Every structure is written in C-alpha cells, then in structure tokens.
Amino acid sequence: MSLDLSLFSDWTLALLPRLFIYPGGLWMLAALLVLRLGVDGIEWLKLASLARDLSQANLLALATAWAALPLLPLPGAAPLPLPADTFSLAGLIALSLSADVLWGHKQDRQDALAGVAVTLAIMAPVAGRRALLTTSGTPSLADWLSLLAVGVGLAKLARPSGRDLAGSVRWLAWLGLGAAPLWGVTPTLSALWVSLAYAVAILVVAVVTRLFGKEATGRLALATTWSLAALSLVAALLR
Amino acid sequence: MRRSLHASSCWLTAINVALAAAQLLLFAPIVAGVHSADLIGAPVGLLFRVDGLSLVLGVVWSLAMAVASAKVEGAPAALYVALMSVGMLSMAYARDPWLLYLGWEVAGLCIWQALRSTRPCNASNRVGFALHAAGWPLLLLLLIGVIPPFAPPPGGASQVWPVPVAATLGVVSMIRSGCWPFSGWLRYASAHIELAQRRLVAIYAISAPYLLAKALVAAPWDAYSIWALTLLGAIALLAASYQTALAMSGWRVVAIPAMSAAAIAAFGLASGSPLAAAGALAITLTAIIWASMGAAFAGNSHFLLLGGFAGLWLIAQGALDLGYGLITAILLPAVLLLAVATWERPGIETEHSGGRQIGPLLGLILLTLAAIYPQALIDFAVRPAVGAMAGGVGVPRLLESGPDVGLLVRSPQETLLAALPATGTALAVFLAFAVLYWLKRLARVSEGEETEAQRE
User: Fold this and answer.
1) Cβ distance of B340 and A57 shorter than 8 Å
2) pLDDT (0 to 100) of residue A119
3) Spatial distance between the Cα atoms of A205 and A96, rounded to a whole number of angstroms
4) Using an 8 Å Cβ cutoff, are A177 and A125 in contact?
5) Chain B residues with CB inside 8 Å of A112's CB?
6) ipTM of the complex
7) What's the gap in Å between the CA of B343 and the closest CA on chain A?
8) A152-163: per-residue pLDDT in tens?
C-alpha cells in the first residue's frame, strides 16, 4: 500500500506545479494575455474585461481545457510518472468543446466544426502508430500535415476565441498538442523556448488574421483544415 | 384510479428490483468459475446459460426496467411492461437462438402494446410492424439452421460465424436500434410517445447491440465479417450525425443516444479485441442507465458523452492494438461531430430543457466518482462480461495488460497503476474547477461593485 500511496503522491507532486505554474496556471494566464493582445488588441487586457469574460465563462469547459494544458508533453515541465496519451488529451479538449457547445454559450457552428477538424488533425497521425502515447523521433509526413491543419484551424479559431476564455485555453492546448511531434524531436528544450514558440505562433496567427481578414476566419479556412486533416489521415494510413 | 395506477407501477418496480437482486446472488459463483448448469439444473440449463455477460446485462436491464416502470400508467400497460421484462431476461440468458428470438419478439410486441395503450392505432401499428419485420431475416436464418447456439461446445470454440450470418446479425441489430438508414422506426415512435413509453423504447433500442456481444460468446468472426460490421457501424454513426443535424427537438431525447451507442458498440464488438469489446459494453451500459434515468431530464446526449468517454478510450486502444488505426483516429472526431450536430438551435427548446441545469451537475458527480474509484465499471461490470466472450474476443488471459496499455488489468497493484492517470486527470479537472469557481465569484463581485460605482 505504501508503494501505491507513494506513486499517487509522485503523480500529485508532479501535477501541482504543472497545473498552477507551468504549463497551466501562471504560464497559461501569461499566454492567454499574449493571445488576447495579439489577436484582439490591448483593450482586451484590462482587468475589467478579463473579469467580465470570466464571469460569463462556462466553468466546466474552462476547467477541462485548463486540466488538459498541464498534462501536455511540453518540454521543461515536471515529468509525470505515467504520461497521458494523445486520445485522453484530445478527448479532454473535445470534452471542453462539447461542454461549451451543449451547455455553455451558443457558438458559431463553423467554429465548432473547425474544432472537430483540429481534433481529427491531432488524432490522424495516430492511425499509423501502434500506441496512443506520443513517441519522440523524426516527424513523419502525417505529423507535418497534421501540424499544418492545426495551424490553419487555429488561425480560423483565433479571433472569436480571444474573447471566450474557455475557447482561448482550448486554443493554447490544441497548439501544444498539435505541436507534440516537434516537442519530441528536441526534448531538451526549456520552458523559455516553449514560451517563445507559443509567442511566435500567436504572432503569426495574428498577422495572418489581420492580413487575410475574413478569408482566414471563413469557410475557406474551415475547408482547408478539414482537407489537410484528411490528407494527414491518408498519409498516416499509407505509412 | 390514481391510487391503483400508483400501486401497479410500485409493484412493477418492486418486482424488477427483486429480479435484479436474485441475479446478483448468482454473480459471485459464476464469476468464480462455477458452471451455469450446476447452478440452475439440467433441464433449464439446456435452454438457458448464465455467464458474466448475461448476468451483467440481466441485472442492468432489470434495474433499468425498475426505474422506467415508475411512470407506467394503467393496468394493461403495466402488464405489457412486466412481459417486456420477461422477454428481455429471456434474451439475456438464452442459450438457444430460438429463445433469444422469441424473447426479443415478446419485448417488441410489448412496446407496441404499450404504445397502443396511449396513442392512436396508426402510429403504434407502424412501429409494431417495423419492429416485427426486422426479425424476419433472423427468423429465416433460424429456419435454415445456420445460427449456432450462443455457447461454445464443451472444450473449445465453435466454428467461425459465416459472413452472411454476421452481416445479418449486424443489420438486425442496427434496425432494432432504430439506426437510420437501416430503419426509421425510432424517430417515428419517439415523435408519437410520452415520457414513460420513451424510456421503455430507449431501453429496447439500446439493448439491440447485445445480440452482437452474445454472438461473440460462442465463436469469433472472420476478417470480412469484422469489416462488414465496422462498415455498418460507420454508416450508422454518419447517418446519426446527419439525422441529428436535421432534427428539431423531441425525438432526439431517445434517438441520439440509442443510435450512437449502437453504432459505436458495433465498432467495438466487430474489432474482436477484448479492450474494444469492453469499451462497447461500457458505452452500452452507460446508455442504458441514461435511458432509464437521464431521459427524464437530459435533452441531449451529454450524459453519454461524459459517461461513455472511458468506453471510447477502450475501443480506440483496442482497435489500435489490432492495427485498425483508422477507427482510432476517427472515433473521437466522429463523436464530437455528433455532439456539435445535436446542439439546440436558438429558439428551439426541448420539452426537457431542465437538463441544462442537471446535466453539468450529473457530469460533476460522474467526474467525482471517476476520481474516487475509476476502476468500478471495469471491475464489477466489464471484466466479467468480456471474460464470458472468450469464444470471440480471445481467452481471458488476454485481459491482462500493462498499465500503459489499458485499464483491463488483473492484480490490485496493476489496477492502481492503471487507475493513476484517470484519477490524476479527474483530480486536475476538479482542482481547476474549484479555483475557477472562486475566481468567478470574485469576478462577479468586482463586476457588481463596478456597476454600482458607475450608477453613483
């Protein structure tokens, strides 16, 4: 029993800093602010604006998205005794989306469909593997296509997600999970590098959204995300 | 009059609870390996077979019928509900396919009669005919004599199920689950019935995939049968998404969980993996519990989404173990698509919109249960049932697997290891929820103060 308790203790001790400091908690809040700044502008960084968004948020959707973020295999985080697999992580984020769709705020149907496409893109490379756990190694074609699909999907979701807290945290979690093959290539990266990668991704999405306007957030982006996700699935199956 | 109605539903509930308790008494010896013929005697033992699968389903069905009986009105309806309980128990414990067929027909006829007691004849007659006609292919196969008994012969597994037989079983299951495009009876029935009948119809529809599980007790399926059933499940899942996208209200309360549970169960059972079969059972059991309890207040498939997540995970892992990566990859997006398609459009409220308040609460209770003891479903329901399917999904020793592979592990030590990630995830969600709850309250207080200041 003492071994069982020590295992549970190890898990909890590894979880707490992940949940409240990095990649969840404080780091998540910082990334959220950068996302709002990049996509929506400086007026959305005001405390009153944050408080209003939090008071209107769907707690279950926000909590499940927050719980998914610290469990991601991000470099620099305290190692978990038993890591969470891709299906569980994608499922937690999917649960957050479905909670928002079914019980929370009325979402745009296109945004919800983009969320499904991103989920498919994340799950697609698994079709060519023998395990649900993400393995380190050179990313395959399916991984690259999946990453591209996630990128386009997140560009589509960036603008509306900037004002919806649960959607924003889901956005961050999808980015971390979608880029999991890249994290696996260089596991020695620190939290600083991950933060830089997130900042660059947010900057790119902000620029793309501002440059292309409605095209980046419209049906074209949705169709591209679905197509790339399907291609990634085909590539994984043909591997 | 009201008193007599109340008395009949009380009696029905009590009888079904007593039946469930009686079946529970058999649970320990059967799971410990005692042969069913030694328990129930030779003449009855030739007709019926008691195993882990039939016991789990029998107990759950009896409890579901006990809950569903609480709203039954009128003596004739009560009689038909009692007969339906008997028919479903006959399905659960049948050794001979003829007995299963008869039990299923009795249950279908009772649904028809229960509908007739409250609704005009035309609607109920159409449902009755659709239910009865769905059994004709099964009857034909029985008359030809190609369906073997639902029990392996002494000393091993019987011959592999022929492809046409497996495909027919799959189609009949889909029809009786109401899976469009195989049949539209469920949609039609749901539009014409009231809450009490709705629960009965849902239990009947969700029980249909049990035929596939029962077939796996005796023998495995070959590769073509596996793909045929997977194709049927995929068609049903896609069609369910399409139908729910078009649906406006009412009938979805029954139809969505029934159709999606049947389709996903077909996926899981077809693959022939113990893990995937466990997932299929977990989803079926969750859906039956939802049908008997949740249908009263949940206007959508929330409960199924939350409660069935463990089942989905098991199916995904099982499919991946066997090399069916496609199923693993599309399962989660397909179910999510179903959830997205089912959300209510603005201005259209279901008659059970109370689910908006109770749904999240139920989700939180499930989450708490998962955090305290995530292995309960596996230990007490799924493992004994899958163990009984040794003919189709491999010998029970295959249920032993490492903690990084699946939750179906044998020793307490392994059980705890496997439960750790599930408990840890639930703990993370709980902690996040608690922190957010207080932050939200704080935000509301500060928002209120700001509004006051603006007024002044």
Assistant:
1) no
2) 96
3) 22
4) no
5) 340, 343
6) 0.91
7) 5
8) 999 888 865 557
